Amino acid sequence: MGALRTAVVGAGAIGSLHARIYAEHPYSELVGIVDVNPQTAAAVAEPLGVPWFTEVSDLLSACRFDAASVSVPEHFRYESSMPLAKAGKHLLLEKPLAPSLAEADRLIADLRETGVLTMVNFILRFDPRYSEAKAAAAGGRLGDIHTMFTRRRGSYLGADIYGVWTDLLISTGIHDLDVMAWLADSPVVRVYAETISRRLAPYEHDDSAMVMVRFDNGAIGVLETSWVMPNRLPAGLDACLEVVGTGGALFIDSSNHGLSIMDAEAYSKPDLTHWPVILDRVGGDLAASLDHFIRSIRRGAAPEMTLEKARHAQAMVDAAKRSAAAHVPMELTPPPG
Ligand SMILES: NC(=O)c1ccc[n+]([C@@H]2O[C@H](COP(=O)([O-])OP(=O)(O)OC[C@H]3O[C@@H](n4cnc5c(N)ncnc54)[C@H](O)[C@@H]3O)[C@@H](O)[C@H]2O)c1
Fold first, then answer.
1. The domain made up of 4-116 is a member of CATH 3.40.50.720
2. 154-186: per-residue pLDDT in tens?
3. Which atom of ligand 1 is nearest to the CA of 72?
4. Which atom of ligand 1 is nearest to the CA of 37?
5. How far is the CA of 211 from the centre of ligand 1 (A)?
6. pLDDT in tens, 276-299
7. What is the CB neighbour count within 10 angstroms for residue 120?
8. What CATH number matches the domain at 125-276+311-326, 3.90.1150.10, 3.30.360.10, 3.90.550.10, 3.40.50.720?
9. Whose CA is nearest to atom 18 of ligand 1?
10. Helices (H), strands (E): how many in the chain?
């Protein structure tokens, strides 16, 4: 099989990185970019030497390709994805699938009808620290997991940039809820959440959330997430994973990627995990996730992060939001049918 011909729909903060990774990948040939904003589309496409469009329909008419990333905000995931899937293009969807669980279920049902390979971009599964944690848990090195603690704290800039159009749990906390479900490898019994809304109260979104999850095998997981810290976080995000089991424990400190730089301006801990640039190429877990997507298509194999697993993470967020609103624990809404 020759290089996979690829495209990107939604060329903002994350989509511009998808485009660059496709352009740099040895088994991918980037053929075009779509962004509803022509300045954004041109700024990403022109340095990569590919045509740009403001409509998916124009990309479909003008370019022959096999697969696309859909990295628009989740409110536009359905309308951007379905024309591509109906045209037989394999899809890498950014997380979350949709703003709500009901909309995610509609997208999953309609995508299944098309038969295209679809992967959802949960990058922590491609972070070597988290994949080693999964291997340790799955290999029995921790014994029976008792407790998991995850943290993902951002600064108020997260609220100002993202809180106006998305929310903390669906955009940020969903990563760690997925990690806990992945490690526990057991059905969720119930979810209890409490949230605080101050800065984002005008948007009816939360600034902070504490979520507790009980799994059927007895494991208990807690997520703390917020967009409250001052805008001086050295690493951008203060994140961690801690797991304690009957046979051992593991600890990931994600507030730090192993490098600290102090200069006249700031004390920083640059990202070396998610999308660092190494010898002019984007690396890290985002590039590993796109590489896995490309290889899954070439092998005709199911990807690591399927629609079903992404739906499960979304159902945990949905239960957490219902719990926070009602102040009582909630069960997950099962998939339709
Ligand atoms: N997997 C991850 O780690 C990760 C990281 C960041 C963002 N994301 C997800 O990616 C999505 C985008 O986030 P972002 O930070 O890149 O946002 P962004 O605002 O920087 O970029 C979104 C882009 O989509 C374009 N767009 C909007 N509607 C469109 C449409 N209908 N057709 C074509 N283009 C359209 C916008 O003009 C913008 O350029 C979100 O769902 C977010 O949760 C995932």
1. yes
2. 999 988 899 889 999 999 999 999 999 999 999
3. 24
4. 37
5. 26
6. 999 999 999 999 999 999 999 999
7. 27
8. 3.30.360.10
9. 12
10. 11, 16
